[in-house]
Amino acid sequence: MSSLRDLARLARSTPIHPQWLLGRRRVPTSLTRAKGTVLDVGAADRWIAPHLDRDVRYVALDYPATGHQFYAARPDIFADACALPVADGVVDGVVCLEVLEHVPDPEKAMREIARVLRPGGCAWISMPFLYPVHNEPFDFQRYTPYGLRRDAERAGLEVVQLHRSGHALRAAGLMTCLAIAGGVENCRQFARILLLPLALLMICLVNLVCWALAAGWPDWPNAAMGHHVELRKPVLRSAPAG
Could you list the residue range(s) of the whole structural domain that residue 154 is in? Predict the structure, then answer.
């Protein structure tokens, strides 16, 4: 592991970290009110579980090829998001945060989410937008909000709400900081040692300037760190007797 990554790990909550503008992981507000059985697809270290109601039956699922290697996954089930080992219509909620970019067929994964949901059940899905390739070779796509809406509607799910994360200037700052850090990491060790102090100074400066500007500068909706969508499986109403 590079010296830049070692130092960044120690300074994760400070402006010298290249992902400082990304902020902490956030749980969708309405997810904290979920009831019944909640399936977490791409659960990683089960970080969602403590935010759920104590009566919720939480089931964590992750993919073996990436779960162990990248996310210290501790799932109840190892499986593929495109072939969920769950019966039709038995889950009250599905969580799938920052996962679909790693799925070779995200439209099929969306259909699987729709299949396992009960009528009236909800799904919370997110995907990064302006973010570098990561966890290669398991990084396949980025979606606009229109792409997320398209796949959801094709799967028969209703969009309850769809929003973007991150001010456009923060998104630009995040990409700039990661580009600085990535360039240094890609150097030979001698050049990396020479460039590291300058990289930290540049990252800190970009982080603070973009953070300050985003507090007052008008936002631009065409650029975002990511997109989040809450979906609902429609309840089929039987036709009245004639």
Answer: 24-167+222-232
